[in-house]
Amino acid sequence: MEHCTDNNILSDILGKQRSEVYNLLLNEFDVKSYERWIRAESKAEDIIELLEDVGEVPNALRSQIMEQTDLVTLNRWLKLAAKAQSIEAFERMVDLMND
User: How far is CA 82 from CA 14, 38, 47, 78, in A?
Assistant: First the structure.
């Protein structure tokens, strides 16, 4: 892992998800968990991309989206982002889902 960090290999992933990557390396590699994680990250990026079409995504919201790993929640958020007329409208719809 230090080799990757020292040589800027996967630095974006290792920087954000260092402990998760480390645990994956120490434990038996679970392909299904890794694939779910990749799908979740991809959906989160899609949500942010849709939201960027309607406004600037605040860092706090960006972090909340990128930290979400539940695919059901991300699918709901993706649909909401596709319909949102503004960042504020998206945030209100997400808050309503959480109540």
Answer: 30, 21, 8, 6
